[in-house]
Design brief:
The complex is a heterodimer of chains A (377) and B (558).
Chain A lengths: L8 H5 L4 H22 L6 H12 L2 H9 L1 H20 L2 H19 L3 H7 L4 H9 L4 H7 L1 H4 L10 H13 L3 H20 L4 H4 L4 H15 L3 H24 L1 H4 L2 H15 L6 E4 L6 H9 L8 E3 L12 E6 H5 L11 H7 L3 E7 L11 E6 L2
Parallel strand pairs in A: 1-2, 1-3
Antiparallel strand pairs in A: 3-5, 4-5
Chain B lengths: L2 H22 L11 H16 L11 E2 L6 E2 L1 H13 L3 H14 L1 H12 L2 H11 L3 H7 L4 H22 L5 H17 L3 H14 L1 H7 L12 H17 L1 H4 L1 H6 L1 H5 L12 H6 L2 H15 L3 H5 L21 H16 L4 H18 L14 H17 L3 H34 L8 H11 L5 E4 L7 H8 L3 H5 L17 E2 L2 E3 L4 H4 L5 E5 L5 H5 L4 E7 L6 E8 L1
Parallel strand pairs in B: 3-5, 3-6
Antiparallel strand pairs in B: 1-2, 4-5, 6-8, 7-8
The chains are: A alpha/beta (377), B mainly alpha (558).
């Protein structure tokens, strides 16, 4: 919350204040984390578990979850409870239920992961080639799509050292129960990875659990050497503060830019003297109306607002605010290339640019990287 | 030799033969056309064959200046035989890679067998690993790194075989290993760092002291004489053009050059706040740690996440270095490796991984399969460890079921890999590392050139001139005659050059349309109308070789 990142589409859609949504997400996740780690205390070292719990709480991937997506926070919270129950009971049925939950949730959230199902359909190679030939390689399209490249690290890099030490000690010792549990967690993480069709950090999210337990083991070993432990604590705290500083200063680099774009649009509208004018807001990057309701309230249901992509190549209306991407003013371009003098070209149409924002990562490909507010007075 | 041994060797030769066929099959059409590096290697080999000098007139060079990237020349020398026999062609220039890629499978079998010690099981596993996607792909493109991988694998075999079998080294095998690793360094840049590192790790075995708390054996340092011998062997490479020029590629690509000032540039200031809150050293260490960790991630071995891999010669659609099932096996493989780390055998494999990934970890890319190709056998061995574990299990019924399952899955995957490489990849990579138009346009230019005074070429592809030299089989003396005027630098060479009737530069149609008795080769963006409006002008559109789009146009101006 302190970061000031605007609400995501999922959060806005719930119609509750974003801070409350985030607190609920955090609580669900927090309770799940607490229950999970406490239930492991039979086999695992308490110090290691506490460190692991702390690392999970400050893990950038997990922080991004409760900051952005309440459903995935809930999913992960429930999985943690399920895993704790399995650990206590050692009932394989619990494990099957968890695996089924991973499978069903990912299908519900993202549809099928075409890349994995493509591999499962190896026998259809001839059809594969034809579909690829037609340029329908959905895997590469998804990887190319800028928002799918958005990702968060699981840990800050200083955690690598206790991770390696923990991994070595876990593998070297004869602690079957611990080893098996780590392997089960890795198996579930792989299952989530294969069936999740979202951005890479969500695909890898379940890997947090085995990794953090291994790091906790590593730190338990390191504890013997006070100077090394001191150095590790310093580096981990430094990494955390540097990460937060980085997030705050490069929000558009780390996070999905669409909520930032909507925040810009509706905060700009607040400053405009609309009077009896109408406002046409782009619909290129998602459901604009729910964001409008979130920022401006019921006024968004009036005839003042229209939410759809527009094309001003053939002309425009006067006394109307147009808010959209430069391609909506000048015509889209297949390669997302626009002339250097685009401002002049828009002015030549009789439109005055009231405000503009350059959006990182091309969220509206073919329509340029500038979000504009313009009017013909 | 008993019958069983003869049969074993026979089937190994048979599988090698099949692999050679899969690698050589249809090279003229898949990958569709050559890339600029293949053209450069091929033409320089042709130039050395006919004149004894490369395109710059350097007599028997150890490195090819090429695009100012100083390519190791060994691949070109080995290509000479094939070019002499088959002529300068797409196939002949790829043959060294085909042969090297096939031969590199032998040490893989030897390694599997020395760890597993059951030759028929080893053979079965090996048979499927022969068709790892990147091995197959690299063997069908002329890549110096593939030749290097072959020498490196043989070198590593002689370096490790005694250690794996008896725990000590013999001088005969060490000398053989040193020679082979030096040849690997003569083939590709990465081995110049990876090979001595591997030798040092294997000869000193640093983790032995850490794990067992033994006293360091200073006598062991005497074994480093082989590293010294290796360095003496490769000294001529740096003597040839001067170390600075030979290290051009590293200077361009290294982590320190690309990421400076390490803290993201939009946050970096020369002030106390930056140094306290987002210290460059913290970021630099993070970058190095991340680059190293990337080579232990099974995900990176199975899927291509990175844009620098896509649209490059490294790209294997649908896969990466390993097949799908192999990369899954990598997870338990890493676990088994760690679990058995006290065992020298497993440590040696780990050393191989670390040595081979180091050259690529110090460059700017997170994961780079060309620079880390020497890693392939070690990673394959790690992913084979779970299979070895299964084979050694006593429960024969369970073992048989799992092995049969794996057999079906790997067989299935192999069919997909072959089809993927020979057919589909061709479409997927078209226009990127296989630039279209040059191969198709070259015969047209050959038929026209005698009637015209000049040909001006404007191409978006880097160093387009090399394709004309290659496809026209132009007399090397022509390009050698302008060598003195060609600029040195770090800019991949000067693409605006003139030789013979050729001139390479940007074409300005409104101005250049007034030229006469000239051929223009340009991007197919000038409208047909504009050509029709110029009396005496005629346009020929060059269609891309697989997907039919206009990749370039030839305009004759009479």
């Amino acid at each position: 919350m302190a970061l000031g990142y605007p609400p995501s589409a999922v959060q806005v859609g719930l119609g509750i204040d974003v801070n409350i949504v985030r607190i609920i997400s955090w609580l669900i996740l927090g309770l799940g984390i607490n229950y999970f780690f406490n239930s492991l205390a039979v086999d695992w070292n308490k110090f290691g578990l506490r460190v692991a719990m702390l690392l999970v709480v400050i893990s950038p991937s997990l922080m991004a979850l409760w900051l952005i997506d309440p459903w995935i926070s809930m999913y992960l919270g429930l999985l943690l409870v399920g895993l704790a129950l399995y650990f206590k009971s050692r009932n394989n049925l619990a494990l099957i239920v968890i695996a089924a939950t991973i499978f069903i949730f990912n299908f519900w959230q993202y549809g099928n992961n075409s890349s994995i199902f493509r591999v499962f359909n190896l026998e259809k190679t001839s059809t594969e080639v034809i579909s690829h030939f037609l340029g329908e390689d959905s895997l590469s399209e998804k990887i190319d799509f800028p928002l799918f490249l958005k990702s968060f690290v699981i840990f800050f890099w200083p955690a690598v050292m206790p991770f390696l030490i923990g991994l070595w000690f876990l593998a070297d010792r004869k602690e079957k129960r611990k080893q098996n549990f780590i392997l089960i967690l890795i198996g579930l993480a792989l299952l989530n990875y294969f069936f999740n069709n979202g951005p890479i950090y969500l695909r890898q999210i379940l890997a947090v659990l085995p990794l953090v337990l291994i790091i906790g083991e590593g730190l338990t070993v390191i504890k013997k050497w006070k100077w090394l432990m001191g150095l590790m604590i310093f580096l981990l705290i430094y990494g955390f503060q540097a990460g937060i500083y980085d997030w705050k200063n490069q929000m558009e680099y780390w996070f999905d830019n669409r909520p930032l774009a909507y925040e810009y649009i509706y905060k700009t509208i607040r400053t405009l003297d609309i009077g009896d004018r109408t406002v046409e807001v782009t619909g290129l990057i998602g459901d604009s109306k729910i964001y409008c309701r979130y920022y401006l309230g019921k006024i968004c249901d009036s005839k003042t607002f229209k939410f759809a992509s527009f094309d001003l190549r053939e002309g425009h209306q006067t006394n109307k605010y147009y808010i959209g991407f430069m391609g909506e003013f000048l015509g889209s371009d297949f390669n997302n290339n626009f002339p250097q003098n685009w401002r002049q070209k828009i002015n030549d149409k009789g439109l005055k640019i009231v405000s503009e924002m350059k959006v990182k990562n091309t969220i509206a490909y073919r329509y340029g990287d500038y979000l504009l507010v313009a009017i013909d007075e | 030799m008993n019958k069983n041994n003869i049969l074993f060797k026979g089937v190994v030769v048979l599988v090698l033969g099949l692999n050679l066929i899969i690698r050589v099959w249809g090279l003229e059409v898949s990958p569709t056309s050559i890339n600029w590096d293949e053209a450069s290697i091929g033409y320089n080999a042709y130039s050395i064959l006919t004149t004894g000098k490369d395109e710059y007139g350097t007599y028997l060079p150890l490195s090819l200046r090429s695009f100012n990237d100083y390519k190791p020349a060994l691949y070109a020398y080995l290509s000479i035989t094939f070019i002499k026999l088959m002529g300068l062609s797409q196939t002949s220039v790829r043959m060294v890679s085909v042969v090297a890629g096939t031969l590199s499978l032998i040490p893989l079998l030897l390694f599997i067998n020395i760890i597993l010690k059951k030759k028929w099981w080893s053979f079965l596993i090996w048979m499927f690993y022969c068709l790892d996607p990147l091995r197959l792909h690299f063997s069908r493109v002329s890549l110096e790194t593939n030749l290097s991988l072959s020498f490196f694998s043989f070198g590593a075999w002689y370096l490790l075989k005694d250690k794996l079998a008896n725990g000590y080294t013999t001088s005969k095998n060490m000398i053989l290993a040193t020679i082979l690793l030096a040849l690997s360094a003569y083939s590709y840049h990465s081995a110049r760092l990876a090979a001595p590192l591997l030798m040092i790790f294997v000869l000193i075995d640093p983790f032995k002291y850490l794990l067992n708390k033994n006293k360091f054996e200073w006598k062991g340092l005497l074994n480093l004489k082989y590293v010294l011998l290796f360095l003496i062997f490769i000294l001529p490479i740096f003597n040839d053009f001067g170390s600075q020029k030979i290290l051009t590629r590293f200077t361009q690509e290294n982590i320190f050059n690309k990421f400076y000032p390490f803290t993201p540039r939009n946050m970096f200031r020369f002030d106390l706040n930056t140094f306290l809150r987002v210290n460059p050293l913290y970021y630099l260490t993070g970058i190095i740690a991340g680059h190293t960790a990337a080579y232990f991630s099974p995900a990176n071995y199975s899927v291509n996440f990175y844009h620098w891999i896509k649209n490059s010669v490294m790209y294997v659609p649908e896969f990466n270095m390993l097949g799908f099932w192999n990369s899954i096996l990598l997870v338990p493989g890493i676990y088994i490796l760690l679990k058995n780390f006290r065992n020298t055998k497993y440590r040696l494999v780990f050393y191989w991984v670390v040595a081979a990934l180091t050259p690529s970890a110090v460059t700017w890319n997170w994961f780079h399969t060309l620079r880390s190709a020497n890693l392939i056998p070690a990673i394959e061995i790690i992913s084979i460890l779970p299979i070895i574990y299964l084979i050694k299990l006593n429960y024969s019924k369970k073992r048989l079921t799992v092995m049969l399952g794996l057999l079906v899955l790997f067989g299935w995957q192999s069919i997909f890999v072959i089809n993927n490489e020979l057919v589909y990849a061709n479409y997927e990579n078209q226009g990127e590392y296989q630039p279209g138009g040059f191969k198709e346009g070259s015969p047209i230019i050959s038929s026209l050139i005698d009637k015209y005074q000049k040909i001006i070429v404007d191409t978006p592809h880097a160093q387009g001139y090399i394709f004309f030299l290659f496809y026209q089989k132009m007399d090397p003396k022509i390009i050698q005659s302008i060598a003195k005027n060609r600029t040195y630098g770090m800019d991949n060479g000067n693409s605006e050059i003139k030789f013979g009737k050729y001139e390479f530069r940007k074409i300005d149609w409104p101005k250049d349309r007034d030229l006469s008795n000239t051929i223009l080769w340009m991007p197919a963006t000038t409208p047909q109308e504009a050509i029709d409006n110029r009396p005496g002008a005629k346009a020929i559109f060059l269609k891309g070789p697989t997907i039919k789009y206009n990749s370039a146009m030839i305009v004759t101006l009479n």
